[in-house]
Amino acid sequence: MEKLPSFQDVLDAVKRIESFIHRTPVLTCESLNRIVGTQLFFKCENFQKVGAFKFRGACNTVFSLTPTEIGRGVATHSSGNHAAALALAAQKRQAKAFIVMPKNSPAVKKDAVSEYGGEIVYCESTLTAREQALNQVIKKTGAIFVHPYNDARVIAGQGTAALELLEEVPQLDIILVPVGGGGLLSGTAISAAHLSPTTRVIAVEPAGAADAFRSFQTGKIIPSIQPETIADGLRTSLGELTFAIIQKYVSDIVTVSEATIVKAMRLVWERMKIVVEPSAAVPLAGLLENKTNGPQSRVGIILSGGNVDLENLPWSN
Amino acid sequence: MEKLPSFQDVLDAVKRIESFIHRTPVLTCESLNRIVGTQLFFKCENFQKVGAFKFRGACNTVFSLTPTEIGRGVATHSSGNHAAALALAAQKRQAKAFIVMPKNSPAVKKDAVSEYGGEIVYCESTLTAREQALNQVIKKTGAIFVHPYNDARVIAGQGTAALELLEEVPQLDIILVPVGGGGLLSGTAISAAHLSPTTRVIAVEPAGAADAFRSFQTGKIIPSIQPETIADGLRTSLGELTFAIIQKYVSDIVTVSEATIVKAMRLVWERMKIVVEPSAAVPLAGLLENKTNGPQSRVGIILSGGNVDLENLPWSN
What average pLDDT is seen over chain B? Predict the structure, then answer.
C-alpha cells in the first residue's frame, strides 16, 4: 500500500492549490441551530469551483505532477464531480484530461466536463467496460490516472477544506462528513487530528450504501454492492488508503435513512437559501436522527457539493 | 405627501438596525461574469433574516417608534415577505404584530408569520376586504400601520443594503434593482446618489407588471392592474413617496420577459448554488436581454430574496 498522507502533505497542498481554489465561506443558520439544538458551522464546498470539494484533491494532484508527467495529460473514469474537477484542474495547468464516461450519462454531467475542456471517452456503463476504456486511453496517450479518492495527493487536497474550517472556527466538538470512497473523510480526519485533537470526526453514510459503516465495524473493507441511495456521491466503496486513515483517525461512522436525507436537504435549501446535493445533506441528517454521541455544542459540517438536477428534485413528485 | 427620506435617514437606519440584521455577503461568480460579459457583484439579501431585504425596512420602522407607539403593536396587510419581516421585527422589540392575510394564502406564508410570533387576522382575498380587516384591527388595537414600501422609515431601511454593497464594492457603474412598490429601488437610489454619484441605478421590471416602467415614462403613477408575472414580489404599484424618489434619482427602468426571468433564476441556482426567488432574478434577466445601456463593466445586483415554493419551481413541469 502507498504511504499514508501526512498533515504536512495537507499543508503542502494548501500552498499548491490556494491560488486556484475558492476559500469557501463558513455559514451559520440560527433556525437550523434551533432545530437541532446545537451550534452549526457549515463549510460551504457547494460554492467551491465545479460545485464540490473534489476540485481541491484534483487540483493538488494535477499540480503535484512533474512537467513531463502533466505533458501526457491526466485520465479518470467518473461521471460525477471528480470528472469535472479533474477536467478543470488540468485546464488550469494547460494540460489534457481524458474522462471515461458511460454513454448514458446525463447531459448535464457531460456538459460540465466539456465546459472545462475535458475530452470525453464514451464507454458502456458496466464497471468492466469503464476500466477497459480507461486502460486503453492510458495505453494510447500515456496519461496519468488520477483516482477519485484512493490517492495520497487527492486525500491531502481534500484535507484542506477541514483545515480552513478549523482555522476559522476553532474548538469544534465534532466535524461531520459524508462518506463515499472516503477521500473527504480521511483528509478531514488528518487535518482535525493535527489541528484540533479533541475534535472528533464522525462520518455519516446512507443506510442504503452502508459499506463504510460495515467496514468500520468489522475492520476490513466490505465493498459497496448494489447501493441504493439518492446520495449519488456516496455509492462507492472505500479504498485501502482511505480505509487505513479512517481506522486510525475517525471516531465513528453512523447511518441515516433516505427520508431523513431528503428532509435535511430541504431544510438546508429552505433555511439557508443555498443549493446542496443530497450527499451534502447526509451529515445534517445524522444530527436530525440523533445518531451522534458525546459533547456536541459546536458542530462543523462539510457541505460537500451543490450539483443537483434542478428538474428532478426529491420533493417534487 | 410625507417628507422624502434623506441619506441621513439611511445612516440613522444603519445604527438602528445593525445589531438585528445580517450584514449579507457580496458574492461573485466567474461563470455568470462570462455569460453576461461583465463583472457582477451580488448583494445577497436572500440570506437576510426572513429571507428578504424587507426585514431591513420593517426593522427600521419598528425601532423608530416611541415606546408608547410600539406598546400598541404594529399592523399590516400582506401575504409576502413584508408580513414575515414585520412579525420578526416586532418580536425583536417584544411587541405585537397583527398581519392581515387572505384565508387562501399558502400554508408556508402563514407558517412564516406564525413562526415569528405574528398574529394573523384572516380576511377574504379582495383588496377591499383586506383594507377593511386592517382598519378594524387598527381601530380595535390601536396598532401602528406599517406600509410595505410607501413609508420614509421603510425606504431608509431598505437603503442600507445598497450602502453596504457600495462600502464593500466601490466604483460600480450601475446597480440593478427589481421594482415592485419601489421601496428597495428608492432606498438604493438615495444611498447610491450620496455614496457614489456616478453609479447609475437602473430598475428592472417584469413586462407583465410594467406599471413602474410606464409611470417612469409618463411622469405620473400608473397603477398595476392585473399584473401577470411569476415575480410575485413585483406585482404592486408604486407609492407617491417611492415614485418621487425614483423620478429624482433613478436613471432608467427597463422590462424583461417571463422566460428570461426563469432563465436568470435558474442560472443563479445552478451557477451560484444559491436559492433566489423569481423577483430577485429580474435584474440579471435585464442583463441577459441587453436592456441596460452605458458603461457597465462593474455591475451591482441586489438579490432581493430567497423565499420560493420548492415544490413548485418554474422549470419542473
Answer: 96
The reported pLDDT for the residue numbered B317 is 54
SS3 string, B108-165, reads HHHHHHHHCCCEEEEECCCHHHHHHHHHHHHHHHCCEECCCCCCHHHHHHHHHHHHHH
- What pLDDT does B40 receive? 98
Residue B273 touches chain A, beta carbons under 8 Å = yes
Q: A240: burial class by Cβ within 10 Å (0-12, 13-18, 19+)?
A: exposed
- State the pLDDT at residue A317: 54
**How far lies B107's CA from each of A267, B137, B162, B313, in Å?**
16, 22, 32, 17
Q: Which pTM value belongs to this model?
A: 0.95
Distance from CA of B153 to the nearest CA of A (A): 27
For B112-151, write each residue's pLDDT tens digit: 899 999 999 999 988 899 999 999 999 999 999 999 999 9
The three-class DSSP label of residue A51 is helix
- B174–chain A Cβ distance below 8 A for any pair: no
- Of A266, A275, A312, nearest to B269 by CB-CB distance is A275
**Dihedral (C-alpha) B3, B6, B10, B11: value to the nearest 10 degrees?**
-130
Name the pLDDT band for B1 (thresholds 50, 70, 90). Answer: confident
Give every residue of chain A whose pLDDT is below 70, as ranges. Answer: 317
pLDDT higher than threshold 70 for residue B216: yes
Q: Is A29 on the interface with B (CB under 8 A)?
A: no
> SS3 for A267-316, per residue?
HHHHHHCECCCHHHHHHHHHHHCCCCCCCCCEEEEEECECCCCCCCCCCC
Our CA-based measurement puts residue B193 at a distance from the nearest CA of chain A, in whole angstroms, of 31
Convert B174-221 into a string of H (helix), E (strand) and C (coil). EEEEECCCCHHHHHHHHHHHHHCCCCEEEEEEEHHHCHHHHHHHHCCC
Pick from A273, A304, A313, A317 the residue to mutate for testing the B interface (most B CBs within 10 Å).
A273
Tens digit of pLDDT for each residue in B154-195?
Answer: 999 999 999 999 999 999 999 999 999 999 999 999 999 999
The predicted pLDDT at position B234 comes to: 95
- What is the DSSP track for A105-126? S-HHHHHHHHHTTPEEEEE-SS
- How far, in Å, CA of B211 to CA of B185, rounded? 14
- Residue pair A203/A246 in contact (Cβ under 8 Å)? The answer is yes
> With 0-12 CB in 10 A as exposed, 13-18 as middle and 19+ as buried, what is B188?
buried
- The full set of domains in chain A, from first to last, is 7-52+151-303 (3.40.50.1100), 55-145 (3.40.50.1100)
User: By the 8 A CB rule, do A184 and A178 touch?
Assistant: yes
Q: How confident is the model at residue B31 (pLDDT cuts 50, 70, 90)?
A: very high
CA distance A317 to chain B (A): 8
Cβ B24 vs Cβ B49: under 8 Å: no
Mean pLDDT of B304-308: 96
Tell me, what's the ipTM? Answer: 0.94
* Residue B19 to residue B17: CA distance in whole angstroms: 6
Class of residue B107 by CB neighbours under 10 A (exposed 0-12, middle 13-18, buried 19+): exposed
